[in-house]
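Marked as duplicate of an earlier ticket. Keeping the data here for the record.
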Amino acid sequence: KKLKIDPLSFFERIIIWLKKYGIYLLLIIILVTILILLVNKLKSKKKENSITAPSIPIPVILLEKLHQIEQKKLWQNGKHKQYFTEITDVTKEFIEYRYQVPTFEKTSIEIINALKLTLINQQWIVKLEKLFTISDLVKFAKLLPTNQENSYAIETTKAFIENERDDLPLNNSEDKE
């Protein structure tokens, strides 16, 4: 038998193939383009959302909260429970930040026990245990704290945050000691 020569050229075959399968090729190109655009958009959103650290360090924010609590003069106006609640909330927030000990819905004893497993100085555990004990007695047993106990609460929390904060260079913290 004789060999038959294809009457169509290479370009004519491409045009026939595109007429037959071109719509599928076009759909694939559109879908790939849409997927690439979506991925790029999600990556840019993640970059925007990844900026979580505040420009002001958390210890500075917490010290400002303590200053605001002092300005309210809660215990001078007889609002002892609210005063101790706000102070212990600031203390718990710092513990959670500094030592990564979850404090949400935990009792004072649970927080102290969890702190004992961290690298915290033993003297701070004793002071915080005393602070939480006084606070619990005021909040739950309706104890009327003395002026010394009220002062102890705010001063201990301030000193704890100032001495244990990790956002300052080591040279500055050594100068304080």
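See parent ticket for discussion. Residues 10-49 form the longest helix (40 residues).
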